[in-house]
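Appendix B, example 12.
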Amino acid sequence: MHAVIKTGGKQYRVAANDVIEIEKLSGKVGDWVQFSDVLMVDGKIGKPTVKGASVAAEIEEQGRGDKIVIFKKRRRHNYRRKKGHRQELTTVRITEILTDGKAPSKSAAPAVWNREIGRTPTIRPVVPNGRHAESRRSGKGKADAGPKADHDHGHEAHDHGHVHESKM
């Protein structure tokens, strides 16, 4: 018996005793979760989910995936940005596929994947202007340069062919 479940914005084809890595779920190792978004069970396709079907699983590991390097470059403009990312993942073992509203053999909490519960928030200090400390500008550039009164753009006075009296 196999089923297609939806969690973390992705779909997975699972069978009993399968071990899969999914987006981070809240819970500790050894906790039981139940997936109620079952899209298909043994060829029976739901509209959009199969009524009364669920999949029970046990959390085996909470971890992080491999590092992905994001590198942006614009040639001839001295623009290079390098950033890394590691996705938080949960490894679960599918224990049973349930149909007709049956309860799992062990007590299972509903699998929750959302921003409030499923993900751990990243704590960053907030500065008084409302932006995070990492996003502040360094203070260099055109934003901090005020308008020049004489519009000389920081250069000495230009001659432009006029005769000026020099101070001696």
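Strands lie at 2-7, 10-15, 19-23, 32-35, 38-41, 44-45, 54-74, 79-98, 109-110. Residues 117-127 have pLDDT under 50 and may be disordered.
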